[in-house]
Design brief:
Structural class: alpha+beta
Order of helices and strands: HEEH
Number of helices: 2
Number of domains: 1
Shape: elongated
Largest sheet: 2 strands, antiparallel
Radius of gyration: 20 Å
Number of strands: 2
Strand content: 25-35%
Strand order of the largest sheet: 1-2
Helix content: 40-55%
Distance between the termini: 16 Å
Length: about 70
């Protein structure tokens, strides 16, 4: 498999995962402080929503790359 097919499959998988989960979250460490031997830190949970249109567009673009990518030569 060439690099274009692998990229197309990765874009399709990303689109399907975006539709299935609808978003993802991660933890961001925002503040850090130290007062003598005591260390303080604050973590915030951030959530990013993936729109439905972005998931569908990723699947369509990945499919187009998979079908028409090798025919350009």
């Amino acid at each position: 498999m060439n690099a274009l097919r692998i990229a197309a499959i990765a874009v399709i998988v990303a689109g399907v995962l975006g539709l299935a989960y609808g978003g993802f979250s991660y933890t961001k460490e925002t503040h850090k402080g130290q007062l003598g031997p005591i260390e303080l830190s604050v973590s915030e949970k951030q959530t990013i929503n993936v729109p439905v249109w972005a998931g569908v567009a990723a699947i369509v673009v990945g499919g187009a790359l998979l079908i028409f990518g090798g025919r350009a030569r």
